[in-house]
Amino acid sequence: MTPTRSHVALVGNDVVDLGDPDNQASFGRPGYVERVCTPAERRTVEAAADPERTFWALFAAKEAAYKLLVKLGEEPGLAHRSIEVASDFGSARYQDHELRVTVEHTEGWVHALSSLGPSAPRFEVAALPPHARASAAGRELLCRIAATVLGVPGATLSIERRPSPRSYDGFEPPRLCQAGVPTGIDVSLSHDGKYVAAALSCPSG
Fold this sequence. Notes:
Blueprint (H helix, E strand, L loop, with lengths): L9 E8 L3 H8 L3 H5 L2 H9 L3 H21 L12 E2 L5 E4 L2 E9 L3 E8 L5 E6 L6 H17 L6 E4 L14 E4 L2 E12 L2 E6 L5
Antiparallel strand pairs: 1-5, 2-3, 3-4, 4-5, 6-10, 7-8, 8-9, 9-10
Helix pairs in contact: 3-4
């Protein structure tokens, strides 16, 4: 199998709040790990010094890969086991696609990137401000990153999600726009518990 190639840079990202009570309960629920992980991934979890953190790293990598695969026209749905993450967390495979993956973590969160293209994506994880809506905080974070990368005023940037009946949530993946015009730079948003995350594929050259 050879890595999937694309004429454009694409990115997917996912963050998991390790302290979220719902996540902690899910990890301990009978059969949950088995529903998410392949047999090889379960062995990785079982052999890890911190099985729960390792599981959520796998989960985040699968979610990040899913978000990218949708942009390639694939429909893996919520069948997490159909996306297999390498034991070194450097790639994820789905059918004939092999995607680059990177995973980073702190005491409070795990974050995964899935990407295609020559340049490493830019990303940031931030704490959700008190009383803020996660979706709005994520868009603000993404526009701030994009403004720095592109060297443009953040006020000129916005995030658009167009309706899509085929999507699981009724909308297409987010698009980065400047003065209302799509930039063509691929982006990804994520939020979980008390964290939000945003990523974008850096323009080459």
